[in-house]
Every structure is written in C-alpha cells, then in structure tokens.
Amino acid sequence: MEDPSSKEDNPGVLEVLEALKQASHELQAHPTRNPAHSDSPAIKALLDLETESDSILSKDPHLSTLSRYLADLKSLVETLEKTRGHGLRSFLTRRVSTHSISRVAGSIESEIQAWMDRESIESLLKGLKEPWKDEDVLVRLLTQFEDRVSQGFDRELQNLVLKSKAFSVLQMVLCDPNCPNRIRENAAFVVAALIRFNKDVFVGQVNMGDTIHALLEMKSTHSLKVLCELITFTKSPFVDEILCNGEIPKILTLLESKDLDMKVVAFDCILEIGYFGRKEAVEALLKGGLTKKLVELQRSEFGGDLIEMGKFDDENQETEGKKREKRENKFLKNHPFASCVARFAVQLEVGEGLRQREKRAFKQGILEKVKEASVNDAEAATIIAEVLWGSSP
C-alpha cells in the first residue's frame, strides 16, 4: 500500500506549508523581538515563502484563503516600511501595523493547520477503507492523528472530524474482527483520544456494546487500557452496558492470566467498575468470585500488605504521610496487588455508583468472603483490618 499521506501531484506542498507555519508561529511567539520589520527572520521567511509558494498554493482551492493572508502580510509589511518616522502619527501607524501583522500571522498558522488536518483525515480514512496491506503505514497515520487530537480542543478540527464521520469509521475498524489487531488497537486509542478531546460530543457517538465486546475480544493490555479509560469518561452508563452484555465474567477471568501486565490492567478496570458501578454491577463482580481472586493475588509474590507501612494511621504527621506515600508507590510498582482487597473496598466506599446502605452491605459481604478465602486466621485478620481502616466508617 502506498503511503496515503503523500501528495502525488505536488510533493513539495507539505514542506512549504510546514515552513510557513513555523515562521508564522515564530512571529507570534516572540513579539518582544520587534518582529514587525522586514529584516525580522520570521518576516523574511514568510515573505520569501510567499513568493516561492505562490504557484504551489494556487493549485489547491483549499489554500486560496491562505494565499490572501500572505498577500495581506506583504502589504502590511510594505506599509510598515513606509512609516519609519518619529512623529506620533508614524508611531501609531507602526503600532497598528505590528498588531495586524501578528494577527495575520495567527490566521496563516490556523489556515495551514486546518489544511494539514483535512489532508490527515482524508488520508487516514482512505487508508482505513482500503484493504489493510501495509499495517505500518496505517499505524503511523493513526498514531499521528491521535497525537494531533491529544494536543487539545480545536473547534475546526472537531468540525472536520464530524463532517468526515471519522469517528464512525474508527469504530467500524475497531469492531472488525478481520482487521489486524495492531490497527484495531490504534483505532481504539484514537477513539479514546477523541472522547478526551470533547467528551460531550463524542461519548454520544460510542456504540457501547460493540466497542466493549471488541476491546475484550482482542485480549490485549492496550485494548483493556482503552476499556478502563472509557469507563472513566462515560461512568455508570458504560458499566451498565458491560453488565448487560455479560462481559463482567470475562474481565474477572483476566485476573487469572499468566501475563502480569494483563492482570494489573484487569485489576485497574475492576477498580473503575467498583467506583462507577451501580449495585447490580458490583454484585456481579462479587458473585463472580472477585474477593477470593483478590485474596489470592494479595497472597502472591506480587501482593503484600500496605498496612505495615502505616497507610491507615491517621496520627502520622503530614510530612510523614508524604514520605509514606512515596514508599507505598515504590512498593506498588513491584507489588501491584498489595492490599488489593482493601483498595477495591475503598473504591466502593468513595465511589459514585452506590447508595450508603449498599456500600455498608457490600463492605460486610467482602469481610465475610475474606474469612472464607483466607488460608489462616492471621491472613484474614490482616486483610480485614485493612478493609476496616482503609475506608471511612
């Protein structure tokens, strides 16, 4: 597959636009360098490129506005050059021209970015709709688009995404079992990035059921991390959909994976479900044997007890608390399931999905299951103490 990001008709257009964008950015970023003179490096670069790019820009109707801005810039600089006197009128004219130059430079940068975004989306969608012959090219295009979206909200970019129906195409690829997993995973990353970009707009476009099934079907740490992120952003409705689709047992099964990273991400996902899930979702976790699985993980070489570090001792000073937190974080890197029973109980306690009486009932149920799952009284006593002290009464 040929790289769809290349411009066959004019391979130099992207290089010219990149240079124009950089010069425009410099003109805005360093106003204290007195850029509003034709001998300013940024001004000189823009004017040189304006002459060089004239034939290139004229071939693309989307760049006609950019051509006008470059012509306006040239006119403003010429006006500025004619007003180098020392009178008040010259001073005011220079101030107005300097402000106008900065404003036009901003418009130039915005126009170039809009063109690049349009080309990027068109190339990406073209590649995703064709047979997947070159995974590397598509993964690179998806990664580039994810990076662009992750730069922060941009209304023009949002309009381009909505107009092109890119979100629907990305979801279609994510949910296509015939598509290579690398492409599906990266499509999932972009879906998550778009939700971060503007949750109010893109959450409503998520086909929850199919997306959840696809992410769990891939059985990769990457896809499961996206699932965690989607729970965080869409909260209880997404957890409800996980429950209705019967996916909770699949997530619980991942806690038994031989891949440590997979087990860690599965636990993170369960913590998110515990925080946002309603009564039925939490019941499904506990009926699926979650407490026993967590006790076993806490007993493993990757578990341990944070209680010994004074995690739940309210009498420590604040400075001591910060030192303790650093020790705990260091410990958790090598022991990701340390005090995992209490950590889950805390999520239920401070979470958004349960009523107070439900929280109390689940807490009591966890304590009873801990006694059943523990190998001896000492283990049970330690875990119970963590659960009791780790969450508020």
From TrEMBL:
Matching InterPro entries: ARM-like, ARM-type_fold
The name this protein goes by in its record: Armadillo-like helical
